[in-house]
Amino acid sequence: MKLLIIEDDASLREIMCRALRDEGYVVETASTFFEAQDKIAGYNYECIMLDIMLPDGNGLTLLRHIKELGKSDRVIIISARDSIEDKVEGLDLGADDYLAKPFYMAELSARIKSVLRRGSNSISHTMSAGNIVIDMQSRRVSINGNNVPLLKKEFDILLYFMQRPNHIVDKAVLAESVWGDHVDMADNFSFVYAQVKNLRKKLSEAGATVNIKAVYGFGYKLEEIEE
Description:
The protein is of the alpha/beta class. The protein has helices at about 10-20, 35-40, 60-70, 85-90, 105-120, 150-160, 170-180, 190-205; strands at about 1-5, 25-30, 45-50, 55, 55-60, 75-80, 95-100, 125-130, 130-135, 140-145, 145, 170, 210-215, 220-225. A five-stranded parallel beta sheet has the order 2-1-3-6-7, with helices on both faces. It has a four-stranded antiparallel beta sheet with strand order 8-9-10-11, covered by helices on one side. Strands 12-14-13 form a three-stranded antiparallel beta sheet. Helix 2 packs parallel to helix 3. It starts with a strand and ends with a strand.
């Protein structure tokens, strides 16, 4: 699950980021209106935590932008402004929840899980490619009906590719999407190569009819194995 925190308070942003990563989420952050706008335009998130008081713009404008783009990202407004007018306006614009500051991290976590459950009621929990089936709710992967145990990052990588079949994925884009913002501190992408290699081995041994193929000079692509 990939989350975006839009919050200009550095200390609060770091606390939220650390707590949610500890729960297993992939977390990205933005501290300004324009940084958030770029991330929203370029990526999809399961849930966005949105502060409406940003130094260079209004978070409600960002919320309108999200809805105009037709995105399905769930949005929780997080604000020190706890007036009924702000809540009504945010919810009317399409926010899924409104959490007033200050708040406990446990409450934020519960709110995120709640809006994700609500959002999942209308969509399928499974995705398939070839003979691979992923259950996104239980994080279970099966091939020909047999369970294939994967590590967390291996699962996240497979899900990312299955959402983009036959698309070439740059290794840097893959790293940022699966590992989050801090990937830019890495010296190289050896951790990506290692995880993809292990995932490919597990899929092959389980008899998968699709493979994550290396595309020299570009990245990887999920495609059917030719018989």
